[in-house]
Write a structure and sequence with these properties.
The complex is a heterotrimer of chains A (about 350), B (about 375) and C (about 110).
Chain A: H1 6-10, E1 13-18, H2 19-33, E2 37-41, H3 57-61, E3 66-68, H4 73-85, E4 89-93, H5 104-111, H6 114-117, E5 127-132, H7 147-151, E6 157-159, H8 164-176, E7 181-186, E8 193-198, E9 212-215, E10 220-224, H9 227-241, E11 246-250, E12 253-255, H10 259-269, E13 272-279, H11 284-296, E14 305-309, H12 320-323, H13 327-339
Parallel strand pairs in A: 2-3, 2-4, 5-7, 6-7, 10-11, 10-13, 13-14
Antiparallel strand pairs in A: 1-8, 6-12, 9-11
Helix pairs in contact in A: 2-8, 4-5, 9-13, 10-11
Chain B: H1 51-76, H2 90-97, E1 106-108, H3 114-120, H4 124-128, H5 142-145, H6 158-171, E2 177-182, H7 189-201, E3 205-211, E4 214-215, E5 218-219, H8 232-235, E6 240-244, H9 248-266, E7 269-274, H10 293-300, H11 304-314, H12 320-343, H13 351-354, H14 362-376
Parallel strand pairs in B: 1-2, 2-3, 3-7, 6-7
Antiparallel strand pairs in B: 4-5
Helix pairs in contact in B: 1-2, 1-3, 1-11, 1-12, 2-3, 2-9, 6-7
Chain C: E1 2-7, E2 17-23, E3 30-31, E4 36-41, E5 46-50, E6 55-60, E7 67-69, E8 73-79
Antiparallel strand pairs in C: 1-8, 2-4, 2-7, 3-6, 4-5, 6-8
The chains are: A alpha/beta (about 350), B alpha/beta (about 375), C mainly beta (about 110).
Chain lengths: ~350, ~375, ~110
C-alpha cells in the first residue's frame, strides 16, 4: 500500500488506486470527518485486515476507533447494534462472506429491524463491510455470494461496487447513510487499479439506489454487479467483434434496486441478460427479471436470460472457473435473446 | 432425554492416571513454559509412558513435521494455493490423537489438524487434497477414517462433536467424540453453546483446545478474557485441564484420562493444550506486522520435537539407530504424500453436481445438462 | 501492483541490529526473487541479503553506513501481487471464447 503523508491522505483530487486502496481511502475519509465512526472486526487493527484494507488506520486514528475483536461474528454485529444505539456510526467488518452466516441472527433479527422495532427512535447507521464473491481460489466459505439473502431482509440496504472509484464513492455514501448497509466488496477485483476522485466532498454522488451504464450499447443489456461487471465488459468487447453491441449496466445497489434504470436500458436495447455468481434459484437475477418484465414488458423482444452460478455449494479451486459464469455462457445467453 | 450406561470402559494404559470424575487433574509446576502458565498435568512426564508409545509419538510428530515442510514448499512452488502450517503444535496434536480409540471414537477437526489426521491413519494424500483445493473437505473418506471433513469455520464443528457423542450415549456404544479447536475459536458462540450442551447432556466428548497463542494477528490477551480457556470448563460443569501442549506425554495423559472419564459415563472434559503457532497463520501471512521475532525465537527453543528426543534418549527408550530410521521413514512418507497430492487428478467438472443431494432434483439435472452443453464441451 | 516493505530480519540468534555496508540495488531497479539486495554487517558477520520479493525497488530506508534495528523497514518493493491472507490474486488474462454471435437483423 502506498505510504502517504497525512495531508496527502485527505487531499481532494483524483488519484490512481487499487480497489483495496480505495476502500482504505474511503474509510480514512469517514474516520476523519466523523468522530462517531468506529472500525472493528477480526484482524482489522494491527494487521490492517487480511486484504490490508484497513492498513494504517489504527496507527492514524488510534486503537479506540480502529480495533480488533475476538473471533465471534455474531458479537461483532451485535456490538455494532449497541454502539449505534449509543450514537456511534459503526463500520464493522466480517472477514469473509461465508463467516457472515454465524452473524445472520444479529444481522437479520437485530440490525435490520431495530429501527422499526423502536418506532424510529433507535438509529442504526451501520455499514457492514463484507469481502464477497469468488474467483480467488480460496478455501471453503471464502467465495460466497449472499446478496439475495440480505436483499430479502426488510430494513437492510445492500451494495456491491465494481471498480475503485465506485468503491470509494459508495462506501463513503454508505457510512454517511443513516440506515444499515451491507457493503459487499468483490475480493477478486481488490487489485484492480483505476482513477479515484477522492476527498470529503460528497458532490457527484448519485442517490442511493442508482445504477450506472458502464458501457452503452443497443442490442442487449448485460446486468451485473461486483466482479461480474468486469466479466460482462469482457463479453461486450468480444461481442463487438461479431457486430453485436452490448450495453453493460452495473446495478451497484442490490437493495434498493434501480428499476427505473433497468427499464430505461431495456427500452433502448429490448433484451436483457442478468449475470451473477450466486446460484440460480431464488437468486437476485430472478428479481431483476421480474422488475424488467413488470416495467418494460412491451419493450422486450425476448425473455430475460439469467447466467449464474449453479445450484451447488461454492466449489474448490479447479472447479471455480466452471462454476462462475463463463464468457461463453454469457454469449450463449445473449445469442438466445437475439434469436428469440 | 433418556440416559443409558455406556459399554464397559477400556482399562487405563500404563502410566495414565485413574479416571477422576469430579475434579481437574492434580496441578504441577510447569518447567518449560512461560510464567503464569501453570499446568494441570505434569510437564516432562514422557518417561512415564511405555517406551513403544513414546517412540510412536515421536515418529508421528516427526512425520508431521516433514510433511508440513513439504506442504509449505508445495505452496511456494505453486502447487497449493495456500497452506496452514501446524509447526510447533505436533505434540498437542499427536499426543491427543494417540489416545483416541480408532475403532470407536470420532474426531472433529477444523483446518490445522494435519498431525491428528496422520496419527489416526487418515489417507494423507486425500487430506492434503484440501490444501491443493481439489475438494474443500479433502478427498479422504471421513466416515471410514473417523475424522470429519476439514472445516474452515472455526467453532462450526464443535457442536457436531457434541451431537455425535450424544448419539453414542443414547446407543450405549461407548464411543467418544474429540473436538479440536483453537484459542480464536474459543470466542465463538458455537463453542460456548457446545460446552454447555455437552455439560447438560453429559455427552462423552473431549474438547481439545490447542491454544497456540495467536488467532491470526490477535494474541491471547486480546482474545481470551481471563486468560484461560480451561478455566471456562468450571462454568459448564466439567473438568478443565491445562497442559503443556509441547509435551506429548502430558497431552496424551490428559486426553487418555478424559476419554476414560467420558467412556465411564462421567461426561465431557475441556483440555487446553498450551502451545505455539511457530509459522505464519497461513503461507501468505506476515507475522512481522504483529508479533515479535524474540517471542517466536523463545518458542522455537521449546520445539516439541527435540524435547521429546532428548527425553527418549535420557530414558534409554530410543537410540541413534531409531532416530536415523525415524528420519528416513518420515521423509519417505512426506515425499510419498507430496508426490501423491501433486500428481492427483483434478476433479471433473461434473463433480460440481454429483454430491449436492442424495436424491437429485430435476432442476439440478437440467443445470448439469446446461453445464455440459455450455462449459464442458 | 502493491507495495511491500521488507523489514530487517533477525540474522542470527538474538541480534538486534545491523549496519548497511552496501546497497546492491537502487530505487527503480527491477529485482528477481533471491537476487542480491544489500550487504549488511552484524555483530557476527557481513551477510548479503537475497531479495525476498520479485518486483521493483520503490525506496530504500537506510543510507549506507546507517544502523538498522531488527524489525525496522529496510526496503520497499512494488510487487505485482499482494495477496491477502487467503486466496490468490486472479491473473489478468486475455478473454477467450468459443461462441460467436450473429447480430440481429436491424
Amino acid at each position: 500500500m502506498t505510504e502517504l503523508s497525512v495531508d496527502e491522505r485527505h487531499a481532494a483530487g483524483t488519484v490512481e488506486l487499487t480497489m483495496q486502496q480505495a476502500v482504505n481511502r474511503a474509510l480514512r475519509t469517514a474516520l476523519a470527518e466523523d468522530p462517531a465512526v468506529l472500525l472493528f472486526g477480526e484482524d482489522v487493527g494491527r494487521l490492517g485486515g487480511v486484504f490490508r484494507v484497513t492498513d494504517g488506520l489504527q496507527a492514524e486514528f488510534g486503537a479506540d476507533r480502529v480495533f480488533d475483536t475476538p473471533l465471534a461474528e455474531s458479537a461483532i454485529v451485535g456490538m455494532a447494534v449497541g454502539l449505534a444505539m449509543n450514537g456511534f456510526r459503526p463500520v464493522p467488518e466480517l472477514q469473509f462472506d461465508g463467516f457472515a452466516y454465524p452473524a445472520v441472527d444479529q444481522i437479520v433479527n437485530q440490525m435490520a429491524r431495530m429501527h422499526y422495532r423502536s418506532r424510529g427512535t433507535a438509529p442504526m447507521p451501520i455499514t457492514l463491510r463484507l469481502p464477497s464473491f469468488g474467483g480467488i481460489q480460496a478455501p471453503e466459505h471464502h467465495g460466497e455470494s449472499l446478496e439475495a439473502l440480505f436483499a430479502h431482509v426488510p430494513g437492510l440496504k445492500v451494495v456491491a461496487p465494481a471498480d475503485p472509484a465506485d468503491a470509494y464513492r459508495l462506501l463513503l455514501q454508505s457510512v454517511r447513510a443513516d440506515d444499515p448497509v451491507v457493503f459487499m466488496e468483490p475480493k477478486a477485483r481488490y487489485w484492480d487499479r483505476g482513477p479515484v476522485p477522492v476527498g470529503a466532498d460528497a458532490s457527484g454522488m448519485d442517490p442511493i439506489g442508482t445504477s450506472r451504464v458502464v458501457r452503452p450499447g443497443r442490442h442487449a443489456t448485460l446486468v451485473a454487479w461486483g466482479a461480474m461487471v468486469h466479466r460482462c465488459l469482457e463479453v461486450a468487447e468480444l461481442a463487438a467483434e461479431d457486430g453485436v453491441d452490448l450495453e453493460v449496466l452495473d446495478l451497484r445497489w442490490l437493495k434498493p434496486i434501480d428499476a427505473d434504470g433497468l427499464a430505461a436500458s431495456v427500452a433502448r436495447t429490448r433484451r436483457a441478460v442478468v449475470v451473477h455468481e450466486a446460484p440460480l434459484t431464488a437468486g437476485l437475477g430472478a428479481e431483476v427479471a421480474a422488475l424488467i418484465t413488470e416495467r418494460a414488458f412491451r419493450d422486450l423482444a425476448a425473455p430475460v436470460q439469467r447466467v449464474t452460478g449453479f445450484d451447488v455449494p461454492y466449489p474448490a479451486g479447479p472447479l471455480e472457473p466452471q462454476y462462475l459464469p463463463t464468457i461463453d455462457r454469457v454469449l450463449f445467453a445473449v445469442q438466445r435473446t437475439l434469436e428469440f | 432425554m433418556p440416559s443409558s450406561e455406556p459399554a464397559g470402559a477400556d482399562p487405563a494404559p500404563p502410566g495414565a492416571p485413574a479416571p477422576d470424575a469430579a475434579t481437574v487433574l492434580p496441578s504441577a509446576p510447569a518447567t518449560d513454559l512461560p510464567a503464569g502458565a501453570a499446568m494441570d498435568v505434569p510437564t516432562g512426564s514422557t518417561t512415564d509412558l511405555p517406551a513403544d508409545l513414546g517412540r510412536r509419538l515421536y515418529r508421528d510428530m516427526l512425520t508431521a513435521r516433514r510433511l508440513d515442510g513439504e506442504a509449505i514448499a508445495l505452496q511456494r512452488q505453486g502447487v497449493f494455493p495456500a497452506y496452514v502450517s501446524l509447526r510447533g503444535q505436533e505434540a498437542a496434536q499427536v499426543g491427543s490423537a494417540a489416545a483416541v480409540d480408532r475403532d470407536r471414537d470420532f474426531v472433529f477437526p477444523t483446518y490445522r489438524e494435519m498431525a491428528v489426521a496422520l496419527t489416526l491413519g487418515v489417507d494423507m494424500v486425500g487430506y492434503m487434497a484440501s490444501h491443493r483445493a481439489l475438494w474443500h473437505g479433502g478427498l479422504y473418506d471421513p466416515m471410514a477414517s473417523r475424522f470429519a471433513p476439514i472445516n474452515a469455520v472455526v467453532g462450526g464443528p464443535v457442536p457436531h462433536a457434541v451431537g455425535w457423542a450424544l448419539g453414542e450415549r443414547l446407543r450405549g456404544t461407548g464411543g467418544c467424540a474429540v473436538s479440536y479447536f483453537g484459542d480464536g475459536a474459543s470466542s465463538e458462540g458455537d463453542v460456548h453453546e457446545s460446552l454447555n450442551f455437552a455439560g447438560v447432556f453429559a455427552a462423552p466428548v473431549v474438547f481439545v483446545c490447542q491454544n497456540n497463542q495467536w488467532a491470526l494477528s490477535v494474541p491471547n490477551e486480546r482474545q481470551v478474557a481471563g486468560g484461560s480457556v480451561a478455566a471456562r470448563a468450571q462454568g459448564y460443569g466439567m473438568p478443565g485441564v491445562r497442559v503443556d501442549g509441547n509435551d506429548p506425554a502430558a497431552v496424551y495423559t490428559a486426553t487418555r484420562a478424559a476419554l476414560d472419564h467420558a467412556r465411564a459415563g462421567g461426561g465431557p472434559t475441556l483440555i487446553e493444550a498450551v502451545t505455539y503457532r511457530l509459522e505464519p497463520h497461513s503461507t501468505s501471512d506476515d507475522p512481522s506486522r504483529y508479533r515479535d521475532a524474540a517471542e517466536e525465537r523463545a518458542w522455537r527453543e521449546r520445539d516439541p520435537l527435540p524435547r521429546l528426543r532428548a527425553r527418549l534418549e535420557a530414558a534409554g527408550h530410543a537410540d541413534a539407530a531409531f532416530f536415523e530410521q525415524a528420519e528416513a521413514d518420515a521423509r519417505a512418507t512426506a515425499e510419498r504424500v507430496r508426490d501423491g497430492v501433486a500428481a492427483a487428478p483434478e476433479p471433473g467438472g461434473a463433480d460440481l453436481f454429483t454430491h449436492v443431494y442424495r436424491e437429485p432434483t430435476r432442476e439440478l439435472a437440467r443445470q448439469r445438462r446446461a453445464w455440459q452443453e455450455e462449459v464442458e464441451l | 501492483m502493491a507495495e511491500v516493505t521488507f523489514t530487517l530480519p533477525d540474522l542470527g540468534e538474538g541480534l538486534v541490529e545491523a549496519s548497511v555496508l552496501e546497497w546492491l540495488v537502487a530505487p527503480g531497479d527491477t529485482v528477481e526473487r533471491n537476487a542480491p539486495l544489500v550487504e549488511l554487517e552484524t555483530a557476527k558477520s557481513a551477510v548479503e541479503i537475497p531479495s525476498p520479493h520479485a518486483g521493483t525497488v520503490a525506496r530504500v530506508h537506510a543510507e549506507e553506513g546507517a544502523v538498522v534495528a531488527v524489525g525496522a523497514p529496510l526496503v520497499t518493493f512494488e510487487v505485482a501481487d499482494a495477496p491477502g491472507i487467503v486466496g490468490t490474486v486472479p491473473r489478468a488474462e486475455k478473454p477467450t471464447r468459443r461462441v460467436r454471435l450473429t447480430p440481429p437483423k436491424e
